[in-house]
Design brief:
Length: 552
């Protein structure tokens, strides 16, 4: 059923029609009938069309000299008094024109070029602009806010400074800017590991990597600071010890928008905790189940953890599938699958996209009515230059690449990350850079994903990854009914090097031999002795010392 008619035109002598045309296109997507009157439409023609068509809204644009615009709008104000039908009046123009028109106090809504597509979408859906600062305009949970914003992606950014007070003030500043939908609270390592054991905190590590939080009241203070502006959601990474008790605290204090948990990390493998890998993996699976039972979305961080340690592309694609598989197995209904682009940072854009497309295909092959998969993309930290101006360009370029996969969430990486943790100012500016890219690509990006070389690499990665996954299933068929969801199997795969990365320190139980190289924009398993890449069959045969036959 139609929501009514929206009429658009460029007013008076203005021939610039893009703004009105784009607004009408959005209105049509939202279920309105639309009528475009064209460029340089006279006041009399506008009023005649209103009386004839009885629109619920009319949007008029003017982008020339402000004084001329004022003259025409004054004519409109005077003549509109005779109308028998009263629509919602919308004006769009450049900032200088909009400032003058705003003084006339006639239009119900004015867009001045500083707003974004999501502002228009919100207005068409609610009849209000986001700058009303009304909590009722903003859903307080992830799936609700995704539904409100689609097709515009939610923006998320990590934030946590060594000073609790500066973090609290920064959260309020970010919320008031209305450019960010999700504040991803970065807590320091002491909080992640010793929240329930304050006596074990190491004072010299307070504020290392994030904000120190000492009790539940601290989390509540940070959440309260976000309740302004566009009322962003808040979420926090899982702990590296006492993971379920800390999850309970986060749920009760910040209404954790979703849980982010690594399956294979935060343990002896990466030094971010002292748990054995099998123990931490079992606890991660229990944590996934805990959130699944509560209906809280979950994100697993696996693929980029492997990529950041220079694992070859096949491992990263396999990690995407294993992550989604475990999320589904342990009861998650709404799963966030993260794709970190530019890892390693020497990947070519086309081969990076091919890898992401393979990851997406395998992760989303598990989706059904009870398991929904949302795409979250981000730039890779190693990709950004220490020169902030260059980093701004890289952030924009990476975002344009990411938009090829139509993400539901963009994890914005502040352009300063190569130098220092992002401040509120950096976060706001980085989000505006990303918003500029989204605005330019949302209605149609360059169709790079259809390039033959990208499709060929995607298909190659799908084949190689299926070989690896089936090898794990076959190798452990006698040991487990469900190898890909079994912590004992997966931890053994890592220790043996079946799942491996060059930057995993090979001591004690960890015996992998993987070496990788980036060639032709791809990260490949590498045979150093013969100076050539290896496919998975060759790699696994060299690793195990036996010929392997795996059904694909």
């Amino acid at each position: 059923m139609s929501k009514g008619m929206v009429i658009g035109a460029s007013l008076g002598n203005c021939v610039h029609v893009a703004g009105a045309a784009h607004f009408l296109a959005l209105a049509e997507d939202e279920g309105y009938e639309t009528l475009f009157l064209g460029p340089a439409v006279s006041v009399d023609s506008v009023l005649e069309s209103i009386e004839q068509n009885k629109p619920v809204m009319i949007t008029l644009g003017y982008r020339l000299t402000p004084e001329n615009g004022v003259t025409i709008v004054r004519e409109l104000i005077e003549k509109s008094t005779k109308l028998t039908h009263k629509p919602v009046w919308i004006f769009g123009g450049t900032l200088p024109v909009a400032e003058k028109i705003r003084e006339l106090n006639f239009f119900d809504v004015i867009f001045d070029g500083t707003d974004d597509i999501d502002d228009s979408i919100t207005f068409l859906r609610t009849g209000q602009l986001p700058d009303k600062s009304s909590a009722e305009l903003f859903a307080g949970d992830l799936t609700g806010r995704l539904a409100q914003k689609q097709p515009y992606p939610l923006l998320r950014h990590h934030f946590g400074l060594p000073s609790f007070e500066e973090t609290r003030e920064g959260i309020a500043e970010i919320a008031e800017s209305r450019v960010l939908d999700v504040i991803s609270l970065g807590i320091d390592q002491n909080t992640q590991q010793y929240f329930f054991k304050p006596e074990d905190r190491r004072p010299e590590m307070d504020g290392a990597g994030g904000v120190p939080v000492y009790d539940a009241e601290g989390f509540m203070e940070l959440k309260e600071a976000s309740q302004c502006g566009n009322f962003p959601l808040m979420r926090c990474y899982s702990g590296t010890a006492d993971v379920i008790p800390l999850a309970q605290v986060l749920n009760e204090t910040i209404a954790n928008a979703w849980c982010a948990v690594p399956l294979c990390w935060y343990n002896e493998l990466d030094g971010r905790g002292d748990r054995p890998i099998k123990t931490s993996m079992e606890e991660a699976q229990a944590l996934i189940a805990f959130h699944g039972k509560l209906g809280i979305p979950v994100e697993l961080n696996e693929p980029h953890h492997w990529g950041l340690r220079d694992a070859h592309d096949t491992i990263s694609v396999a990690a995407s599938y294993i992550s989604a598989y475990n999320a589904k197995k342990y009861g998650v209904k709404d799963y966030i699958s993260q794709y970190m682009f530019n890892v390693p940072n020497s990947l070519s854009f086309s081969m990076d996209l091919a890898k992401a497309l393979a990851q997406i295909e395998l992760s989303e092959s598990l989706a059904d009515k009870d398991f929904r998969v949302y795409r979250q993309t981000r730039a890779g930290l190693p990709f950004l230059s220490g020169d902030e101006n260059i980093a701004k360009g890289q952030l924009a370029a990476s975002t344009a690449l990411q938009m090829n996969v139509r993400p539901h969430i963009i994890h914005v990486v502040g352009y300063s990350e190569a130098l220092h943790a992002a401040t509120p100012e950096v976060i706001i500016e980085s989000c505006k850079i990303v918003r500029g890219v989204v605005r330019s690509t949302l209605s149609g990006n360059a169709e790079a994903l259809h390039e033959a070389k990208i499709r060929e690499r995607r298909d190659e990665l799908l084949s190689e990854t299926k070989y690896l996954l089936n090898f794990i299933r076959d190798e452990y068929a006698d040991a487990s009914d469900d190898p890909l969801g079994d912590a004992a199997v997966l931890s053994d795969c890592i220790k043996r090097g079946i799942l491996d990365a060059p930057q995993i320190v090979k001591t004690g139980d960890f015996k992998g031999t993987l070496e990788t190289r980036v060639k032709n924009g791809q990260c490949l398993a590498w045979d150093t002795k013969n100076s050539r890449p290896m496919d998975e069959r060759t790699r696994l045969e060299k690793l195990t010392g036996k010929a392997i036959k795996v059904a694909l």
